[in-house]
Structures are given as C-alpha cells and as structure tokens.
C-alpha cells in the first residue's frame, strides 16, 4: 500500500516507554482487570478471555520488553499509525457527512508498550489491539505487528506494502468498532448481551466483530477511491491475516480442536467474507451482519 498522500492524525497519544504493572502469580493484576472490563463490555465469559490470554502467553505472545519512542523503528511505526488513523478520520468524516446525519467524531488512539491504563481497565500487550467504548479510544502496542508476522504468520513472504495493508486492516477493524459505537450499535449489543445466555452472547459478539471487519472493508473501498493506494498483494495479505486470526484457526493452534459455541470473532472464512463484502460494496448498509446468517458465510 502507498501511504504518502495520507494525512497524519493528531489523535495519537504515544505512551510507549512509560508503561508498567505488576504480576499476581502467572498473570498481571492489570491483565485481570482488563479481562474483566472487556468481559463487561462484550458479554464474553471472563474465564474464556483468561483462557485465551494464557494460550497467547503459552505461545510466546506475551512480552514485557519496552519500546522507546525515540527508536527509528518506533518513530516509523508511529508515523504509519498516524497516517492510517488520519485516513480513517477523513474517510469516515466524508461518509457521515454524505449520509446527512451527525458529524463523525474521531477517536483517540493510544500507543503503549507492556501495559497502560484505559477507560475499560488496564491494557496489556498480550490482549492485542482493542477499542474501549467508555473513553472512545483504541489501544495498540505496535509489537502486535511483529506478533502478526511470527505467531499469526501474516504476510510471511509478501512485500512490505502487503504487510502494511494487513496492519492497516487491524487498525481499521478497531475503528470499525468506534463507528458501531457512534451509530448506537454497540450500546444495543451490550444491552442484548445482558439478556441472554453465554452461547447467545458469543453469537452476538461474532456478528459484532464481523461487522467491524466489514467496516474495515468499507474504509479500504472509500480510501481506494480517493487515493488509489492499494497495490498488488495487499488484499491477499489482509485476507491472510483475517484467516490467521479467525476463531477456528486460533483454537486449533492453541488447543488442537474448535468449539463453535465459544467463538467470539468468527471463523477465518467469515472474517474474509465480511471484509471483502465491505471492500466490494463500500457501504454501511452492506455490512448488516445482524440480519444475516453469518454461519453460512
């Protein structure tokens, strides 16, 4: 992908090098807090989240290394994140304006290393990027990009452009949750999740996550129309990433078998399908996963 024409966002807060936290047993207290916070806002059983965290830790996903913001690689990562965030701001602002509704309110994005505080509790590296609806902020440790290459095997042999597009897809997915929040979808999802059992909560979570994948595709579609930034191999890398982080693939890697009732993000095929749906159509209306039989995708 080519990002030279992308505007850098002013909504990035760099906290790298200033994170901390302490551990209780094999898991940090901050991790326990953020797992409980994410459980509250998504309706996912906290024991399921803890199990997922431990699987990541067991595979070497956890890290306590700190990143200095002054390192050239760290500066390059920050610039890239600012450019992608800036493109989401411009794309979604234009989309909301054309729709004639309330204006788009851009979220913040916090870069951190190790751990940091969030409106949903402590953010931890091993949890991966996430969106907190309480403070309308995305939390991201850019070490996750390295983890995508190594643990998730995203774009292993592709050019840097392809890897960059895969990383951009991850950021755009989290911004997709912010769009859901602005549209009132997340609050309705949270209310519904409190009314149903765990299996139904997980099914609702899958539809929510797949819609965020679709919104990431809408961003790519609209941004492509403006900047023609997608290069050969980019979409394939994003699809490879979507496949690598599907619930079925992650469960196979961590425990050797899959439990569909425990899925919270969707299968590899579902994540590919809905990202491509957004990319091909470029509209929010095409992303109505809640009125679609996602199990057939």
Structure description:
The structure is a single chain. The protein has 10 helices and 8 strands. The chain has 297 residues and is α/β, with parallel strands linked by helices. The protein has one domain (12-296). The strands form 3 sheets. The chain has a 4-stranded mixed β-sheet with strand order 1-4-8-7, covered by helices on one side. A two-stranded antiparallel ribbon has the order 2-3. The chain has a two-stranded antiparallel ribbon with strand order 5-6. The longest helix is centred in the last third of the chain and has 30 residues, at 198-227. Residues 19-35, 37-65, 246-255 and 257-263 have low confidence and may be disordered.
Strand content: 5-15%
Main beta sheet: strand number and arrangement?
4 strands, mixed
Low-confidence stretches: 19-35, 37-65, 246-255, 257-263
Mean pLDDT: 77
Helical element count?
10
Summarize the amount of helix as a percent range: 40-55%
Q: What series of H and E elements makes up the topology? A: EEEHHHEEEEEHHHHHHH
Structural class: alpha/beta
- Provide the domain count: 1
* Radius of gyration over C-alpha positions, nearest whole angstrom: 18 Å
Overall geometry comes to globular
Number of strands: 8
The largest sheet has its strands arranged as: 1-4-8-7
Distance between the termini: 27 Å
What is the secondary structure topology, with strand pairs?
Elements: E1 12-14, E2 23-24, E3 27-28, H1 29-42, H2 46-58, H3 72-99, E4 108-111, E5 115-118, E6 121-124, E7 130-132, E8 137-140, H4 143-150, H5 160-182, H6 185-193, H7 198-227, H8 234-244, H9 247-255, H10 268-281
Parallel strand pairs: 1-4, 4-8
Antiparallel strand pairs: 2-3, 5-6, 7-8
Helix pairs in contact: 3-5, 5-7, 5-8, 6-7, 7-10, 8-10
């Amino acid at each position: 992908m080519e990002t030279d024409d992308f505007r850098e966002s002013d909504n990035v807060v760099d906290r790298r090098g200033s994170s901390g936290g302490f551990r209780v047993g094999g898991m940090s207290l901050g991790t326990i807090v953020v797992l409980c916070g994410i459980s509250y806002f998504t309706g996912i059983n906290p024991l399921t989240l803890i199990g997922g965290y431990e699987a990541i830790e067991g595979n070497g996903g956890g890290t306590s290394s700190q990143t200095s913001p002054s390192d050239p690689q760290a500066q390059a990562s920050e610039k890239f994140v600012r450019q992608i965030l800036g493109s989401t701001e411009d794309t979604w602002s234009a989309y909301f304006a054309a729709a004639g509704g309330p204006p788009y309110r851009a979220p913040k994005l916090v870069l951190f290393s190790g751990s940091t505080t969030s409106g949903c509790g402590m953010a931890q590296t091993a949890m991966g990027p996430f969106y907190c609806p309480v403070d309308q902020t995305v939390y991201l440790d850019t070490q996750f990009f390295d983890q995508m290459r190594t643990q998730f095997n995203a774009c292993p042999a592709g050019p840097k452009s392809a890897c960059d597009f895969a990383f951009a897809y991850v950021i755009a997915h989290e911004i997709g949750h912010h769009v859901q929040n602005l549209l009132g979808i997340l609050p309705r999802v949270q209310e519904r999740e409190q009314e149903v059992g765990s299996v139904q909560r997980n099914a609702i979570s899958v539809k929510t996550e797949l819609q965020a994948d679709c919104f990431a595709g809408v961003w790519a579609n609209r941004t492509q129309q403006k900047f023609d930034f997608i290069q050969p191999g980019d979409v394939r890398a994003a699809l490879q990433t979507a496949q690598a982080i599907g619930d079925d693939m992650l469960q196979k890697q961590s425990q050797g078998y899959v439990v569909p009732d425990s899925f919270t993000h969707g299968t590899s095929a579902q994540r590919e399908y809905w990202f491509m749906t957004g990319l091909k159509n470029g509209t929010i209306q095409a992303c109505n996963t809640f009125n679609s039989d996602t199990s057939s995708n």
